[in-house]
Each structure stands twice: as structure tokens, then as C-alpha cells.
Amino acid sequence: VQLQASGGGSVQAGGSLRLSCAASGRDFSSYAIGWFRQAPGKEREFVAGISWGGGTTYYADSVKGRFTISRDNAKNTVFLQMNSLKPEDTAVYYCAAGLTTVRAMSVGRVMDYWGKGTQVTVSS
């Protein structure tokens, strides 16, 4: 599975962005997908995850109620809708795939595949 994140950019606080994670390769629909982010000088952290079928989602407390993760297995794509963005959301965002649960990925379970990141910058 190869993953490519896109959709990042620069917005003002309160704005919105929609990230996409496009996948190629077989068995994409078998994988749970997670979004992670890494800000300068900080460790990478879990943001949101979605199960292989899309029926289960999980969010970090810092983004709950503002971000929504979804997937379209027919198009091999996972989305992260980010609303009410804050300066502290500034980071490089990565998508990753794993044969795991969304809860496990939220607590550090090693993912199987990673895409290159996309930069999100939120100004105050």
C-alpha cells in the first residue's frame, strides 16, 4: 500500500482545510487508516483514525468536535475535514495504514505504511 497525503495549506485561525490520503495497491479496504501530525520540536502524535470499514472512528481529545475523518473505499481515499483550526494545529500531517484497531493506533501501535506528509499552517 502506498499513501499520499495532500490538501495542506495556510489558513487563519477559525478556518477549515480538508486533507486527503490517496492510496494505491491492493487490499486498501482491509486497513485501518490514521492521521498523525508532527509539529516542530515535538513528537509525532495521533490525530484521528478510522476502521477498515469506516464504521469506527477515534479522535485525539485535542481535535474532537472539530475534525472529522471519513473514507471512500471505492476511491481508495481517506479524508480529514478540519474545522475551527487553531494555531496549535500547525504541523506536518501524515496518513498511515495498519492492520489494527483505531484504539490501538491511538496509543502508539506501529503502523504498516506511511505516506509523505502535508504541511498545515494556522496563523492567529
Fold blueprint:
Elements: E1 2-6, E2 9-12, E3 17-24, E4 32-38, E5 45-50, E6 57-59, E7 67-72, E8 77-82, E9 91-98, H1 102-106, E10 113-114, E11 118-123
Parallel strand pairs: 2-11
Antiparallel strand pairs: 1-3, 3-8, 4-5, 4-9, 5-6, 7-8, 9-10, 9-11
Any overview of this molecule?
The protein is mainly β and 124 residues long. Helix content is 4%, strand content 49%. The protein is built from 1 helix and 11 strands; from the N terminus they run βββββββββαββ. It has one helix at residues 102-106, and strands spanning 2-6, 9-12, 17-24, 32-38, 45-50, 57-59, 67-72, 77-82, 91-98, 113-114, 118-123. Strands 2, 4, 5, 6, 9, 10 and 11 form a 7-stranded mixed β-sheet that branches. A hairpin with a 6-residue loop joins strand 5 and strand 6 (57-59).
Essential attributes:
124 residues; mainly beta; seven-stranded mixed sheet; four-stranded antiparallel sheet; 49% strand
Average pLDDT: 95
**Taking Cα atoms only, what radius of gyration do you get, to the nearest Å?**
13 Å
Low-confidence stretches: none
- Helix/strand class: mainly beta
Short account of what is shown:
The chain has 124 residues and is mainly β. The protein is built from one helix and eleven strands, in the order E-E-E-E-E-E-E-E-E-H-E-E.
